[in-house]
Amino acid sequence: MAKLSDPVTVLKGVGPSRAKQFAQLNILTLEDLICHFPRGYEDRTKLVTISQLEPDVPACFKAMVMNTPRVNHIRKGLDITRVQVADSTARLNITFFNQKFAAEQLHYGEEYIFYGAVSGDYAGYNMPSPSFEALDAPAVNTRRVLPIYPLTAGLSNTILLKTVRQALAICDPPKEILPPEIREQFGILPAERAYYAIHEPQSLQEAEAARKRMIFEEFFVFSAGLSLMRAARGMKKTKPYENRDLRDFYGALPFQLTGAQQRAISQIMEDFGKGAPMNRLVQGDVGSGKTMVAAAAAFCAARNGKQTAFMAPTEILAEQHCKSLEALFAPLGVSVTLLTGSMTQKEKRLTRERIAAGQVDVTVGTHALLTESTVFSDLGLVIADEQHRFGVAQRSKLSEKGEDPHLLVMSATPIPRTLALLMYGDLEVSILDERPPGREDVDTFLVGESYRPRINAFIRKHVSQGHQCFVVCPAVEENEELDVKSATVWADTLQKTVFPDLRIALLHGQMKGAEKEAVMASFAAGQADVLVATTVIEVGVDVPNATLMVIEDADRFGLSQLHQLRGRVGRGQAKSYCIMTTHNRNPDTIQRLKALCKTTDGFKIAEEDLRLRGPGDFFGSRQSGLPAFRVGDLSIDLATLHQAQEASAQWIDTQGTLDTPEAQNLRQRISALFQRAEGTMN
Length: 682
Ligand code: ADP
Ligand code: MG
Prior knowledge:
- By secondary structure, the chain is an alpha/beta fold.
- Helix 6 (about 190-200) packs across helix 7 (about 205-235), helix 7 (about 205-235) crosses helix 23 and helix 9 (about 260-270) packs parallel to helix 10.
- Bound molecules: adenosine-5'-diphosphate and magnesium ion (MG).
- The site of magnesium ion has 4 residues, from helix 10.
């Protein structure tokens, strides 16, 4: 027997070059292979007769070869092999394209199982390139429920089928980690059966049961891990902040806080008084004023002699936050400093010295703040802006920095309530569901290509009024497969043929970090009129002078993503607009996009997105800050998710601890998942 940790090269037929192909799919060991789950199935169990074949509907049938296959060389690169087959009901002509081996493998007078579809395009049945197997050959592509695997260049589905089968034959699948009571209560297949069944199901129902088990298991492990983190932090002690008087802070604000902001702040003050580290998420739509909530927390920490590390996802955002906090805090005697990678070595060293000496209250920077060699004299509070870049793994590492600092994460990604609990199971949540007064909604329109002249005129109008525009494209470069606008080409076209007199800038994810920052900074400083970009601009950038957002091929984006993009405008006093273009005529797509024109409530939009696309997209997207789930490819249903969560809560409740020998496998799986999470983030 082989071990799960053995490399795939222990398998027959897997040498170094094949192993490289498997590595493309992140498959290095037998365990990786066995955990490479199909993304779907085709039911090829049923046999039909030739006369029952329906045009364009693939099916399995048994037939005898009625002549010796003939190969015709048509031209270079095109060989056609023709053969006639029959069963007791009908005859059928089969044509293979560039599959000369078919002529060698199909013998006159013998029976085979075929799988294919007849084409209905001309009189007389014809079937192009079916799969076929001899009656006594093992069922690989016919007579079974066929798993369809995620593939990569050089690795066909058949190769995966055979290698997975071989792996399962020489080693035991991963051990059971779910307690028997839980399996029974929720009707979950045992591990061993599930691993075989997910790869070699007897029926679609069995495949479904196996898939459900894998999803259940993964989310059970994840929820249990979050609960453990929460419990572990709950055990920790810190000194409560005695001074929670915010009157000076409120007095310095240029505006009145919204009710939602006040509620969030008082929840934070309560946390600060408790004597245990705070773990709080502030969730609020773009423009709901999260920064002020964070500022209140930093102010309170400073009044209690504690330092704050304020982390933004990009340097430019860090600079923005630093500026606005400096302005606010200067009269209050709270000192603010910036620490980013693009500062000179000397500047960084001097800043670090001041931080270590306790001369700085609030340090604003990127996530490097925590990972680099920054030593705080007394770090009391860590604030992470834009939560989706600050994942579970980073959260779990935080307490290593300083004396268990309080943690405040802020997210502008509205997560449907149904998922929030699962994703943030280790955090308390405050929701900012109110916008500062006087903000007008961004008017949103969905238009077709015929509106192009009007869009161009609209862009020109905004620019001539001294405002700026964003134009977002779904792709970076021209792509033959996807007929969508690319930022690079579109920026060029706009500059050369449409707006030769305007300043067009380009921003996309394939540019280097420093280059991106420079483009963004110059746009923010008003040095470009139109910024053509990919979704890299999605996160938090504040350019109040930008009043128009054009989103090309909007059907390529998810609703929540479109909503985030739209949030880049409408941040100043001037009326702002969002124009989405699409070529797509699918009524469902149009309806989906129209939902965005009707509402600006991020939570409603997220719920709608969840309803339309399922939770898979939330967990699949790397921005979620979640670990890479193995079942991410499988469509995840909410019901299973909820069950897994309920089960883990129930289990942790009744067990109290996972220190028992029975829970050892579960503990290992939790740490493996969270370790993988670290690898996949930043
Ligand atoms: P986000 O939640 O997207 O991070 P910000 O904190 O950047 O939002 O706030 C957006 C803008 O609204 C900022 O210019 C901020 O100064 C302003 N703002 C925040 N709270 C209020 C308020 N209560 N009244 C008026 N303006 C506010
Ligand atoms: Mg913000």
